[in-house]
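Notes from the 1:1 (GR / supervisor)

We went over the backlog. Supervisor wanted to see one worked example end to end before approving the batch request, so GR pasted a single chain during the call. The sequence is below; no edits were made to it. Supervisor asked that the structure be written out right there so they could see what the output format looks like.
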Amino acid sequence: MELSWAAGNERQSVDGAGVYRFELPHGLAHDSLLMLRCDDRWLDWRHCPAPAYGHTRDASVVWEEPGPELELLLANGEGKYLECKQEVPEGDSRKKMLKTIAAFASQDGGTVLIGVRDDLQIVGLPEGANVDKQVLQVVGMIRDNQEPVPSYEPRVIEHDGKTVIAIEVSGGGRMYAYRDGKRAEFYVRVGPNTVPARHHEIAAGFWQAPAVTTR
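Structure output shown during the call:
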């Protein structure tokens, strides 16, 4: 069994079913490849993409180093696929986050990190905060203000004694709206900014949406 990445590789002999561990002090490198082979013949392989940008996570890959995971997410700063919030937002900041989630879902996905400042400083949730209630609060915001509700996963990441909430939004191949009352608004991500979608972008999003057949 061989784990390979851009800067090197690690190998282990496999003598039967069981759990095999690689010692990775710096975490799993981006786009690692795990191969099972006998001599020069490949028996199986697994691509292990880095956890980033709301892409669908491979449940068979267990991340045991949350520090490196968070550092990978922050490596390129805020941009098309990443938005940082110091705390669970309220008021106008809440609307901005929800518009960004709609934009992520309408394009290629993305991640919102709550507990990280705009300058990428990891501050964590406020001391004494009930993490479960904070997660439920964000889930409620998404449920009540997104149409349709996109595919997403809220996760809690512990890093150096600080707690961060990651909202990983998957790209849905169609347009998702932020709804404020009766008004539905469509947004896209341009670099680190969330901006209103243009008419042709909205039309293209609906054109690409899968057809639904009723009987």
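Supervisor's comment: Confidence is low (pLDDT under 50) at residues 211-215.
Batch request approved.
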